[in-house]
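[Q] Does anyone have a clean structure-token version of this?
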Amino acid sequence: MKRKFAVAMALGACIILLGCAAALALHDRRHADDGVYRQVVNRQGYELDLVQRSVPIRLTLEPAWMREAKAWGIRLAESRQTAFVLERTAFLNGGMTFTVSIRPAMDRSAGMFLSNQVFEEGGGYHYYAQAPLWQIYDRNGRKLDIDVIAAGQGDRQFSFTLSNEETEPWYAQGLVVEYDGIVAYAYAKT
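[A] Here you go.
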């Protein structure tokens, strides 16, 4: 009996150690991505080329996410080594606000990524904005006449607010939001 208990404890300790190692590796990867990203966009040892403007990203919003204000951390889409993650939802100004982070997976030598920023040669940037940025569809791909009543952008994130009144009939099936305020880049170490 004592032997079984000791074996179970040893296995439990191994599982905990493996879990901690995995969490540490993920944490290190996120910080490494952030460091490489900063070097790339500031052109510190990297060449950065704008490849395409107005890259459309389709985000499928599930019904549950449209009813509750909370932090989610759910991957909505992935394209060109970049993940789009629903960070949180909130009820603001008569609507539901969705905040989406843009998470590029950066390679140290070369790669591609998507951004909502246009990086300038001198080190500055501005947010990409060419109307219309937003299109709203039902789950069958039919375009809906729903307006984004507010939108904002930040460093590697954007948010948008849909009117509760206009979107409530779609809560049961969810919506698809297409956002084309995204720019594609290629980079390489110099």
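[Q] Thanks! Anything notable?
[A] The chain has two helices and 14 strands.
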